[in-house]
Amino acid sequence: MVSSELLSGLLVSNPTAAMMSKSALLKVILLGDGGVGKSSLMNRYVTNKFDSHLFHTIGVEFLNRELEVDGRRVTLQIWDTAGQERFRSLRTPFYRGSDCCLLTFSLDDGQSFQNLSNWKKEFAYYADVKDPDSFPFVVLGNKLDVPERQVSGEEARKWCRENGGHPYFETSAKDATNVASAFEEAVRRILSSEDRDDHLIQTDTVNLQKKPRPEPSCC
Ligand SMILES: Nc1nc2c(ncn2[C@@H]2O[C@H](COP(=O)(O)OP(=O)(O)OP(=O)(O)O)[C@@H](O)[C@H]2O)c(=O)[nH]1
Ligand SMILES: [Mg+2]
Predict the structure, then answer these.
(1) Is the torsion defined by CA of 163, 167, 173, 174 positive or negative?
(2) ipTM more than 0.90?
(3) Closest Cα partner for 92 from 56, 63, 57, 119?
(4) What value does the mean pLDDT take over residues 168-173?
(5) What CATH number labels 24-198?
(6) What is its EC number (predicted)?
(7) Is 61 in the pocket of ligand 1 (CB under 6 A)?
(8) pTM to 2 decimals?
(9) pLDDT tens, 115-128?
């Protein structure tokens, strides 16, 4: 009798017998003013942790998370950028190749909301996006848990409507409100846009249930 370990070893060493599955690698980038909570949103989504004394980001960082949306398994590569103006030249080279841009502001900071248009322009310029209004942007109003609100939901939705019909989420990285929904919507937006095949990569997943086709026996 063949042990399952041996069978697994045989299948792995014989990739033609194993069925390789495909997973989409999607690059999502978080942009917005310094302090609005971009790093906190990424950390909440990927590690389910929140730090109330997080340092400003310098340059860019990224984390991956696998998820399934509407039956499609994808690997989300989340790029977190430094929002402070002095780090502009460190972040902009990383915009190219993004599949979705999460424009983030803080609900308790009206200026960060006013700056959304600048972030959108900066992204479109450095990512070389020809038609920004048809690119998948998602807008996040973060720090929903803070009572001193400076931006109303109505105002934010109006901006989204008038600037390309972007989806809008009010989130709290602190108490995890709507964070997963926002990232899932980003994936939906990307998958519904056309021409996704260029983002398919081979993963190492091997389906051990599928039996290898028997070699034709020689007489
Ligand atoms: N109350 C509350 N505080 C938050 C929330 N998200 C982030 N913060 C806090 O706001 C501060 C700034 O958060 P960061 O995640 O570092 O902000 P950032 O957008 O990454 O800032 P830069 O890296 O400078 O661009 C930190 O002290 C966080 O703990 C939230 O949803 N609610
Ligand atoms: Mg940060």
Answers:
(1) positive
(2) yes
(3) 119
(4) 98
(5) 3.40.50.300
(6) 3.6.5.2
(7) no
(8) 0.83
(9) 999 999 999 999 99
